[in-house]
Design a protein that fits this description.
Helix 4 packs parallel to helix 5 and helix 5 packs across helix 7. The radius of gyration is 17 Å and the shape is globular. The chain is an alpha/beta fold. It has one domain: TIM Barrel (Alpha-Beta Barrel), CATH 3.20.20.140. It has eight helices and seven strands; from the N terminus they run E-H-E-H-E-H-E-H-E-H-E-H-H-E-H. Strands 1-2-3-4-5 form a five-stranded parallel beta sheet. A two-stranded parallel sheet has the order 6-7.
Length: 259
């Protein structure tokens, strides 16, 4: 089955296109199943994020995806999801939201530790202690069973200067927890496209994926679509699969969902 569960919408301020345009492009590209996983809102107090939808937009987002699922049910299967961080203090609110809106799945895109306001973006990590905080959150999040997979698990290499012994330690801890919990790690095609087009190596980071190839946790691949045409970049999609194959890896055939 050809699938992708990492899809954003214009509600997050850094993606473009209508929800339906994503579906049309996915159908055109021959996908069997897709999921929308825009950046989750959080129950922030006196803070407005500029990288995620507001709480007031969540109902419209969910209704839009459900309507598209019905409209295109004879052409493609569509899942309703969210990409979110592991923020324990907001978890009760998150669980209520999942039930209320009948959300199918979550993917763990851990952009911040503890909270967003006033906290370091994990793509800007430069110090070992920041790495270990990121590691602690990721392994704890996988233990909750809330997340279908870990998006861009190697996001810390966007800012960290080199893949040193601390990077290797936390990477192995994340990989081993993925094996223990059966949680797939994502080979992220948006990051891969940046490394090709911009010449900057962030994620997927070769040394991280070398360790993945040695330990063999479950693996998936995510387009991380921020525009509808990302679905139609078949050369990038096939190159991603080729890279995984060269590492002796293949994507899991199915992803576990909450419902």
């Amino acid at each position: 089955m050809k699938y992708n569960y990492h899809t954003h919408t214009s509600r997050c301020f850094h993606a473009k296109g209508t929800d339906e345009q994503y579906v049309i492009s996915a159908v055109k590209a021959g996908f069997d199943e897709i999921g929308f996983s825009d950046h989750s809102p959080w129950d922030f107090r006196d803070y407005i994020s500029h990288m995620r939808m507001h709480k007031s937009e969540l109902e419209d987002y969910c209704n839009s995806v459900k309507q598209l699922r019905e409209r295109y049910k004879n052409e493609i299967s569509i899942k309703l999801g969210l990409e979110c961080e592991y923020f324990p203090k907001y978890t009760p609110w998150l669980k209520e939201m999942l039930e209320k809106h009948e959300i199918d799945y979550l993917i763990l895109g851990h952009h911040f530790c503890e909270d967003e306001p006033g906290h370091l973006y994990n793509g800007d990590i430069t110090e070992p202690e920041q790495l270990y905080r990121y590691r602690d959150d990721i392994v704890e999040a996988m233990d909750t069973g809330l997340f279908s997979y870990v998006a861009h698990p190697d996001i810390f290499m966007r800012g960290y200067p080199e893949f040193d012994e601390h990077c290797e330690k936390i990477s192995l801890d994340i990989i081993n927890k993925a094996i223990e919990t059966g949680t797939p790690l994502e080979y992220n095609l948006l990051g891969f496209s940046h490394s090709i087009n911009d010449g900057k190596q962030g994620y997927p980071y070769p040394d991280f994926w070398r360790l993945v190839s040695e330990k063999k946790p479950p693996v998936t691949m995510g387009i991380d679509a921020h525009s509808p045409d990302a679905y139609e970049d078949n050369r990038l999609y096939e190159k991603g699969l080729d890279n995984l194959s060269a590492l002796g890896l293949s994507v899991v055939s199915e992803i576990s969902f909450l419902r």
